[in-house]
Design a protein that fits this description.
The protein is mainly beta. The protein has 1 helix and 15 strands; from the N terminus they run αβββββββββββββββ.
């Protein structure tokens, strides 16, 4: 049995554009209006037995967001917060030590499944936008097959500190995004 979504997709893909905005009857008797902009709407009859189009309301799909900020070394406020798949990664205030920029992290699992891996991609640039370093970093990683090390739902833990070998500056432009969340 096909799902409603796959049936509508099949109908939309096989319907020529010249027949755009036509009304199609589904196997269960409901009718949908296929628009030429690849959207669709349910069609229902009102009390006078006339057809009325009911718009389908949906939350728009948001592509992966790359977050960025300018951070000052020694500031006491968090640098950046990233969110994906129910996981929040907080980039704590920046520190500089032994030739490396250190960014402590904290991870919160807002989801319903245990998290075993969180990877972020981070880019650090100077005030002029000159890239100093780009890395992909596992900020949370459990021990394989040790359930006691998983980040359980509705919990938070300190994450791995990101260490970037860059020159010491007063201000850094930080760009980051969560590139992977693995759950179990």
């Amino acid at each position: 049995m096909f799902s409603k979504k796959s049936l509508l997709l099949a109908i939309a893909l096989t319907t020529p554009l010249c027949h755009a905005a036509e009304i199609v009857t589904l196997k269960d008797g409901r009718q949908v209006k296929l628009n030429d902009d690849f959207t669709w709407q349910y069609v229902q009859k009102d009390s006078d037995n006339k057809q009325a189009v009911i718009p389908v309301t949906a939350v728009p799909v948001i592509e992966k967001q790359n977050r960025y900020t300018t951070a000052t070394l020694g500031e006491q406020k968090p640098t950046l917060q990233l969110t994906q798949s129910g996981v929040d990664v907080l980039l704590e205030p920046l520190r500089y030590q032994s030739g490396s920029l250190l960014i402590p992290t904290a991870i919160t699992n807002q989801g319903t499944e245990s998290v075993i891996l969180v990877t972020i991609k981070i880019t650090v640039a100077d005030e002029n936008g000159q890239i100093l370093d780009t890395q992909s970093v596992n900020v949370w990683e459990s021990i394989k097959r040790m359930a006691s090390t998983y980040l359980r739902p509705k919990t938070h833990q300190p994450g791995r500190t990101i260490s970037l070998p860059v020159k010491q500056l007063k201000h850094y432009k930080i760009s980051a995004s969560i590139s992977a969340v693995t759950t179990r």
